[in-house]
Amino acid sequence: MKCIPLLLLTLLFFLNKQTAFAQIALGCDTVYILTETIPMYEKGDAEATKYLLNEVAPVVSSYNKKNDALVTKVHIDLIINQQGNVVDVEFPNSNISSEFEFEIKQKLLKMKGWKAGIMNGEPVCCRLSFPISCILYK
After folding, report:
1. Is residue 41 part of a domain?
2. pTM, 2 dp
3. What are the phi and psi torsion angles at 136 (to 5°)?
């Protein structure tokens, strides 16, 4: 009976390790999901929010005006490299159009000023996941 929990624990560890160390071809050999220090926007959270409001929110608003389907929440994964540059943007579980994804991706790839995540005292490539919620005012 003790063997089953141990086997389950080993399997969970293996599956988690596969997810946490995904490979991409953008200058990152390893992309960490969990780090000792998460990536931070150098100018602070208020400036990051300001950038999203000024750059991404108009794209969402434009998309909502053009389409019948209303976008209220978009989950975004930023891949930030060791130098603090956004090198990729992904949309997990997305039900938005590829055109809309492309427009948002272009805006976020231009978002400069990140401090890389830290693992074992060294800057590393890291995945930063967050939702963007949109409220429709009438």
Report:
1. yes
2. 0.73
3. -90, 120
| Cα within 13 Å of Cα(116), Cβ side | 19
Q: Show the domain range for 43.
A: 21-133
Residue appearing with tokens 């293996």: 14
Q: How confident is the model at residue 138 (pLDDT cuts 50, 70, 90)?
A: low
pLDDT in tens, 33-46: 999 999 999 999 99
Digit-coded pLDDT (tens) for 98-131? 888 999 999 999 999 999 999 999 999 999 998 8
Separation CA 43–CA 16 (nearest Å): 32
Residue 97, helix vs strand vs coil: coil
Whose tokens are 């990051």? That residue is 48
Q: Give the count of domains, the chain.
A: 1
Distance CA 26, CA 11 (A): 29
